[in-house]
Amino acid sequence: MLKGIHLTLMIGPVVPIPVPRVVLDALESVTVTSAAGSSSGFQLNFMFSSNSPLNTIFVLAAGQNAGMGTPPLRVILIVTIGGLPQVLVDGVMNNVDVQAGQGGSPGTLSVTGDDLTKVMDMIDFSGLPYPAMPVEARVALIVAKYAVFGMIPMVIPLLFTDVPIPVERIPAHKGTDLQYLKQLAKDAGYVFYVEPGPAPGTNIAYFGPEIKVGVPQPALNIDMDAHTNVDSLSFTFDSTKGVLPIVFIQNQATRVPIPIPIPDINPLQPPLGLLPTPISNIKVLRDTAKLNPMQAISRGLAEAGHSQDALSANGSLNVMRYGRLLKARQLVGVRGAGLPYNGLYYVQSVTSNIKRGEIKQDFTLTRNGLVSITPRVPT
């Protein structure tokens, strides 16, 4: 790998172990995608011969899909930059594609997979009752099933917890664990995702509101001579994206739904631009009448936050110059792009591409307005 950058690959059922040197030497490229609102995915590409140990991996992966009883093969990829290890991906294999070599040339083996949410989407637990359990307790109980994968729950309590009375109703599980958790998150205006790390072999299962505050990552610099760390950067402003959500709250006495417009005022998603996105459309959320008032308002705030991100940026990052890996679901500063576009952004997605002698990241940033609200960004 590159000087100052070390790659560690671990593969195995449930608790993976470092692969032999011969397997790591056969690794040609790695692609990892992490994005807010979706599961992370990865692809590993190897060069191999007919007697390569990689054939064993293929047999094991095929066995798990053929009902041989073997657990999913877990993959952990760790990138160490400047002595600081960072878990790039922790997931399981989904598919193995093999292209046999011809004429004495080596063949190729491509391994694709998803993060550990894939494990949570394998078994349907529909009908499992949760008597007198609030949403937070249900989430913690579900995530506890996957402690063997190092999954640690981080559950943010709802503003107004709804504890169902067993004589009135008993909540029941619907679908797989992942489907049910996402439905609970949607009803509360929350998000659910699994983030690898911070230590290798551990994962944070986050259930809570989408947060766009915190300590920003070091700035992305464009057109700043020796300080430039971005290879390319382009911006798009969609003035028609602004939406005013309208939620319905049902009057318990008359059963009449009451429409309530929800402005984009959220302390967890503060404005990052001085000139906000103009409202160009109205979106009616008709399915909120079945929720309690705070759940309906939370759903509206989540919709308002997504719809206001009219400014987006797409670019490519030189990791060696940047000095670390850019992470999704966090803030980052931008410098050198001009007055309307400098400032803080939310990192919507990052795709890491690792090859021998090269490591780059393609990223997408979003913001809810033009012109920075801060005079400076962390460097």
Number of strands: 21
Question: Uncertain segments of ≥5 residues (pLDDT<50)?
Answer: 65-69
Percent of residues in β-strands: 35-45%
What does the largest sheet look like? 13 strands, mixed
Mean pLDDT: 85
3D architecture notes:
- This protein has 379 residues and is an alpha+beta fold.
- The chain folds into three domains: 5-115, no CATH class; 123-208, Phage tail protein beta-alpha-beta fold, CATH 3.55.50; 214-379, no CATH class.
- The chain has six helices and 21 strands.
- The strands form four sheets. Strands 1, 2, 3, 4, 5, 6, 7, 11, 12, 17, 18, 19 and 20 form a 13-stranded mixed sheet that branches. A three-stranded mixed sheet has the order 8-10-9.
How is this structure best summarized?
The chain has helices at 21-26, 54-65, 135-144, 177-188, 293-307, 319-322, and strands at 5-13, 17-18, 27-35, 41-48, 73-81, 84-99, 107-115, 151-155, 191-196, 203-208, 217-221, 230-237, 243-250, 257-261, 273-276, 281-285, 311-318, 331-335, 343-355, 358-367, 369-372.
Sequence-ordered SSE layout with sheet pairings:
Elements: E1 5-13, E2 17-18, H1 21-26, E3 27-35, E4 41-48, H2 54-65, E5 73-81, E6 84-99, E7 107-115, H3 135-144, E8 151-155, H4 177-188, E9 191-196, E10 203-208, E11 217-221, E12 230-237, E13 243-250, E14 257-261, E15 273-276, E16 281-285, H5 293-307, E17 311-318, H6 319-322, E18 331-335, E19 343-355, E20 358-367, E21 369-372
Parallel strand pairs: 8-10, 11-18, 13-16
Antiparallel strand pairs: 1-2, 1-5, 3-4, 3-19, 4-7, 5-6, 6-7, 9-10, 12-17, 13-14, 15-21, 17-20, 18-19, 19-20
